Amino acid sequence: MLEKPKHYDMLTDFVTGNEVPNIGAEENRQMVERFLVETKGYSKDDIEVDAELKFTIGGEEVRSNVDLAVRVQGRRFMVLRCVPGSLVSRQRETLAAARLLDVYQIPFSVVTDGKDAELLDTITGKVLDQGMGAIPSKEEAIQRMKEIRLQPFPQDRLEREKIIFRSYDEMNINVQRKLKGREQRAESREQRA
User: Fold this and answer.
1) Alpha carbon separation from 88 to 33, 78, 116, 141 (Å, rounded)
2) In angstroms, how far is CA 63 from the centroid of its own chain?
3) Which of 51, 132, 156, 167 is the most exposed place for a label (fewest CB within 10 A)?
4) Which of 103, 142, 136 is nearest to 121 (CA)?
């Protein structure tokens, strides 16, 4: 017997304008997107929603998404993980994402629930500041990017970092990703028919 898909309330994503299921921390992400644009001065074009993260580990391709990645002057400056609960419990996962998403370590990582935030230095993993005010404005980001030397993650620690990210990611119940996968499989069947 086929399982009937669940109905999810839908929201319009503030940045992309796309309809997204209101599940998990989606409402938190929408608050953060608005905050980045309306308070911190970023444009919607500066913000990547569901930035695709792909890598291979042990011959297996891992595909996931990073909630938000913010660019300044064409380079990724910070990643944000929007969570529905404890910020501390998502620090390590967010750091791993910032270390794997690009060819260099994205300088700053943020874990937020939309009301509180922790700003982390991606290189050291240390919490630099707390609170929504800790998230750098676009003006601050531009200035900081002038002072930062972008560097790749050390090759000798890369496999370990991939394992860490994959372990956290597999524990997450990512209904939205499952829904996307289901839609892609349905589209593929339609194209073959």
Assistant:
1) 21, 18, 11, 24
2) 13
3) 156
4) 136
Element (H, E) at 64: strand 60-72
CA distance 24 to 82: 9
Q: Domain count for the chain, please give it.
A: 1
| Residues paired with 80 in a beta bridge | 68, 110
Write out the chain's pLDDT in tens, 193 residues.
Answer: 445 456 778 999 999 999 998 888 899 999 999 999 999 999 999 999 999 999 999 899 999 999 999 999 999 999 999 988 788 888 999 999 999 999 999 999 999 999 999 999 999 999 999 999 999 999 999 999 999 999 999 999 999 999 999 988 887 655 455 555 444 444 445 555 5
In terms of residues, how long is the chain? 193
Structural domain boundaries, residue 178:
10-192
Compute the distance between CA of residue 106 and CA of residue 161 in angstroms, rounded to an integer: 14
Give me the amino acid identity at 56. T
